[in-house]
Amino acid sequence: MLKNKKDQKIIIGSSFKFGDDISTDQIAPGRLFHLRSNLPELAKHVLEDADPGFAKKVKPGDFVVGGRNFGLGSSREHAPLVMKIAGVGAVLAKSFARIFFRNSINVGLPVLICDTDKIDSRDILEIDLKKGIINNKTKNLKLKFNPLPGVMIKILNDSGLASHIAKNKGFNL
Amino acid sequence: MHKTISEKILSKHAGRELKAGDIAVVDVDVVMSQDGTGPLAVSQIKKMGFNKVKNPSKSIFFIDHAAPSPRSELSNSHIVLREFASQTGAVVSDVGEGVCHQILVESYTCPGDIVIGGDSHTCTSGALGAFATGMGSTDIAVGYALAKTWLMVPRTIRVNFNRRINKGVFAKDLIIYLIGKITSDGATYKALEFGGEVGSRLSMDDRFTISNMTVEAGSKTGIFPSDDITKEYLKSQRRQDCFKEISADKGAKYEKIIDIDCSVIEPMVCQPHTVDNALAVSSLEKIMVNQVFIGTCTNGRFSDLKIAADILKGKKVASGVRLIVVPASKDIYLEALKEGVLETLINSGAVVQSPGCGPCVGVHQGILGDGEVCLSTQNRNFKGRMGNPNSFIYLSSPATAALSAVKGYIADPREVLG
Ligand code: SF4
């Protein structure tokens, strides 16, 4: 859920906790390769191989919380894309695989690096994207996340890379 | 300034001096995607308002992941790629040509190039002394349209493979050993640069295998300096014109230098479900296999099929085991045919399938059943990778795979090669 809709600074939702090394094969499985041309359908299977019931449970604005090296594996942008389509508000992890991190920014899905040991499943989190603060309301605890590099903030502010390029007729980083 | 190979290549393409940590927009030489990532790239190109690609002869769409297509949805995606290419003059590498990364090194990548690909194993091209990295469809769409991308210049970890390699041990074992040591995120955002007395003597096929798997340690690219071995390879591909020598400056700044004594490395496997879950075959309990797969952009080259055939010659695949062989490209397929390698493999009981990705990504041609175990020469063993989250994938060299197919369980190739 978005508080403060105008500048979309604060997002609130419930967390779904996953472990280390969640691969893009678990987020958007290769066996569903044929659904890549039908993203809403593919989104019904999001994270299926990590938690088969996830797509049914997740509500718009909820958070996916991982451990280390979230999103390792293939370059498929479909992985962050189906998470976004399924309504995931942000992904939090101790660390991210490089291509997944970049793809998430490109599709406009916030990815935050923080100490996720302090978050359990179903904790309610209130995240201030601008200030870099996660308020774990269930545990009454505040966490910080690392700010994104400047170029990535510019891309996110333009709602992703495609709109950035369309708007500027090229890179303006 | 004393530069790493990445710093050299990226500086050249940015038109200014760059060092690790700098962010720059750079020109790219080769842009590619495949049938899983290409259709989204095409729609993103259109969404950005472009109807052309900047450099058609080096803009390639590979149809290799589901080739020939097993389903109508995928056939339709293939049509999207063929139509877009015919409108823009971009290249299609169609069904039967082979795996994208193999075709890139055979026909497109030159030392000193920047190569970006909509496929994480684009780092394979780093073996030729190129800065090659995988990206998602939108980044690739921008690459097609503008022949540019933005990059952060990575810090470099230098890996020296030293001393000597034992019999029965291959490039695949070296890279599995390295990933086991530094883990699946040990090189995230970094470049790996290879050298050392063993490293500098490795054949091109060996270098391709090693560069291919660098992304499994999280790295952005995995580069070998280009040298006489590179030159000979390019000559064999009738591409000697594009050779240039690329190496790091003496005194280049590395984040870390890892020295590996290859003489202590044994034949290795990666156990389910991560690549860094590495173990020497000799320490493994007896693991029965249902399927053995020899192929992919990691180990589907002629030398890989040849060593497998040498081990399988006059022997039969164990009963109850399926051996699937997929040459990585049409040229490899033809060479293996001409040299009698395929005949040996087929006589031993192997099924040989058309060049491409084969069963590697779980789309077709060898999907595993519940509880089944596959030993594969591919680069990844993630849960569900081969089409079934209830199956188990081990990774090894082609020699280990071939002997295991005969034995019916994962076996140490030093038994026959030692
Ligand atoms: S062979 Fe496997 S790893 Fe290589 S490009 Fe194809 S699907 Fe990817």
Number of helices of chain A: 7
Characterize the main sheet of chain B.
5 strands, parallel
Question: What do we call the CATH homologous superfamily of chain A?
Answer: Aconitase, domain 4
Structural class call of chain B reads: alpha/beta
Unique ligands: iron/sulfur cluster
Low-confidence stretches of chain A: none
Identify the overall geometry of chain A: globular
Fraction of helical residues of chain B:
25-40%
CATH class division of chain A? Alpha Beta
* CATH architecture label of the largest domain in chain B: 2-Layer Sandwich
The largest β sheet of chain A comes out as: 8 strands, mixed
CATH first level of the largest domain in chain B: which class?
Answer: Alpha Beta
Q: What is the residue-averaged pLDDT of chain A?
A: 92
**What is the strand content of chain A?**
15-25%
Beta percentage of chain B is 15-25%
pLDDT < 50 runs, ≥5 residues of chain B: none
The tally of domains of chain A stands at 1
User: Biggest chain pair contact, residues each?
Assistant: A-B, 42 and 54 residues
Q: How many E-type strands of chain A?
A: 8
The total of helices of chain B stands at 15
Known CATH architecture of chain A: Alpha-Beta Barrel
